[in-house]
Amino acid sequence: MKRDLKYLELLSKNFPTEQSACSEIINLEAILNLPKGTEHFITDIHGENQAFEHILRNGSGVIRKKVEDIFGSSLSERERRELCTLIYYPEDKIALVRKSMRSKAKMDEWYRMMLMRIVRVLAVCSSKYTRSKVRKALPADYSYIIEELLHEWIEDNENKHNYMMSIVDTIISTGRADHFICAICNVIHRLVIDCLHIIGDIYDRGPGAHLIMDKLCNYHNFDIQWGNHDLVWMGAAAGSWACVANVLRMCFRYANLATLEDGYGINLLPLATFALKTYTEEQTKVFRPKANVYEKLDPNQADLITKMHKAISVIQFKVESRVIARHPEWHMEQRNLLHLIDYSKGTITLNGKEYELLDKIYPTIDPADPYRLTDEEMELIDQLANSFMSSQRLAKHMQCMLEHGSLYKVVNNNALFHGAFPLKADGSFAEMEIQGKMFSGKALLDEVDRMVRAAYYAPAESPMSQYGRDFIWYQWCGPVAPPFDKDRMATFERYLLAEKETHTETMGAYFNLKNDPAVCDKVLRELGVEDTRHAHIINGHIPVKTIKGESPIKAGGKLLVIDGGYSKAYQGETGIAGYTLIYNSTSLKLVQHEPFESRENAVKHGKDIISETKVLEFAEHRQLVKDTDIGKELRSQIDDLQQLLKAYRSGEIQVKGLFLREQSLRSHAQ
């Protein structure tokens, strides 16, 4: 009881009177009965910043649906599309319209019409929130005016019609229409999605991962479940040589230097100098980057990237062997392949069979000691690691990853994790040894999360910090790593062997068993979901090849895999450009997206990227805040406030308002 009173004493500082406690109880009880906010699920963005931003701006079709519901047949399809485009890209659309208008009068009329329409959309978007929450979303400069317009629109007060129109006309006449429209559209973006869930793999392949992270770090409410591509960047930022080498190799493979140089200021000059000095064009043909779908490379640039690609790949094979040697408990010795090469013949023997290498010249490898870094390579990888650790922008983004991220999340009966839940072939939980102890199930996921954080927060030169950095690399490519869960990452074979049989990466048992509803229920219960009837697992990681008839809906709807090919590099295999999920108060919807062409095309032609929306589940009753995890937290707060009221009324805690008033009177009397 003493401990409870101590907590209530602390609570009383925020609610110093019975009246303030009662008011908060009334407020929280009212919030519990508002409709549940809309959740937005996205995965495997892979640096596609323009497509990602468009998805945020259109809310995966939520805004378009609201416009259709509000205006219906009162607006033509062209007019609805124009309104949506204005809401998505207000600055661009206004500039385009301004060029086409022949007179100021026509432009003012367009402003007047669009202002009235977007205020109406905002009124609907804000209707499920408290005035306080809406007010916090409003820009300070226009907060009062927007509130007035919203209030009068909702009230539909004929007596104040002229008052409302006067506000609109004054906004136009004072030259603030552009700013005001942009402000309202930004608030619509803010309110249409209450929470954004990113289920891994923000990084690699596409050119704009740093821009995506800039956007996320300023987003109003989001969480991230780390994917293996995110983790390898986190390891690089923490100084892991193996992670640094992998990050650089991936960037060179897709000719993506924008994120490295423009985004994070990574100094590639030492690597370029080393590569030009060490390799000739004839020695590096198989390391030419994949066809760049973002920009055309000139021959000299492509040649330099190719040489850097080979240089860092060789360094990667060497530094990974060091990590593997430090951790025999991870059983990854089979990924050390350099000692199996016959350098005089240019062949390698795997599983008793000899294969010819596609690239046979390795001037920095000593056949007698193939995993030894040369002095230049040692100095180079150390410089590169320091460059990653010194990038302030990267450090900010990784801090955001840690503060808003985790390996998995369970929210509103949905379990979110990027790759897999490690299982054995019989469906039991797979074990992994971590620092001498065996972990499986939820405990394994929790320990992985802890180890990732240790790489950052343990003292820099401590054994825990070193272990944490190595452990992050294992999460990138390790057999029992939840974000990866394959027997190997066949990087060497894919680069250097023509035989497809050597490229196979065998998926973990989870990927074979996930179609079984019973297995999904078992995983959900292990993660703390008690009622699995309407629960789901939501994954990314493995692109759904829609073009081959694959479906993102598994296990009778228990599991949803929403990696559909955001990355342009995948779209030839998937046939689409990704899936997203929308979970609002009435339903759970799967949204399939077409490839995003360009922002310019979206503005000029009103081109959206939604091709199909499928309702997966309708709620038995409209979901309210009280039906969510936030509702449970609010109910707990109400219980605490009820206890505070009892303590006030029993005299166990003195009402702070009276105490302060008496103190003030004594002060004046003196």
Give a brief rundown of this model.
This protein is of the alpha/beta class and 670 residues long.
Q: Which features would summarize this protein structure in a list?
A:
five-stranded mixed β-sheet, seven-stranded mixed β-sheet, disordered C terminus, single chain, 28 helices, alpha/beta, 670 residues, 17 strands
Count of separate DSSP helical elements: 28
Main β-sheet, spatial strand arrangement:
7-3-2-1-15-16-17
Q: Which regions contain 5 or more consecutive residues with pLDDT less than 50?
A: 658-670
pLDDT averaged over residues: 90
Computed Rg = 29 Å
End-to-end Cα distance, whole Å, is 38 Å
Question: Would you count the extended β strands for me?
Answer: 17
**Helical coverage, percent range:** 40-55%
**Main beta sheet, described?**
7 strands, mixed
Beta-strand percent range: 5-15%
Structural class: alpha/beta
Shape assignment = globular
What does this structure look like?
It is a single chain. The protein is an alpha/beta fold. 52% of the residues lie in helices and 10% in strands. It is built from 28 helices and 17 strands. Helix 4 (62-71) packs across helix 5 and helix 20 packs across helix 21 (463-477). It starts with a helix and ends with a helix.
Secondary-structure map:
Elements: H1 2-14, H2 18-32, E1 39-42, H3 49-58, H4 62-71, H5 77-88, H6 90-100, H7 104-126, H8 131-137, H9 143-155, H10 161-173, H11 177-192, E2 195-198, H12 209-217, E3 222-225, H13 228-238, H14 241-253, H15 258-263, H16 269-278, H17 299-326, E4 341-342, E5 347-350, E6 353-356, H18 375-390, H19 392-404, E7 405-406, E8 408-411, E9 414-417, E10 431-434, E11 437-440, H20 441-457, H21 463-477, H22 491-496, H23 509-513, H24 517-526, E12 536-539, E13 553-554, E14 559-561, H25 571-574, E15 579-583, E16 587-593, H26 599-605, E17 610-618, H27 629-650, H28 656-669
Parallel strand pairs: 1-2, 2-3, 3-7, 9-12, 12-14
Antiparallel strand pairs: 1-15, 4-5, 5-6, 8-9, 10-11, 13-14, 15-16, 16-17
Helix pairs in contact: 1-27, 2-27, 4-5, 5-6, 7-9, 7-10, 7-11, 12-19, 13-14, 13-21, 14-17, 16-17, 20-21
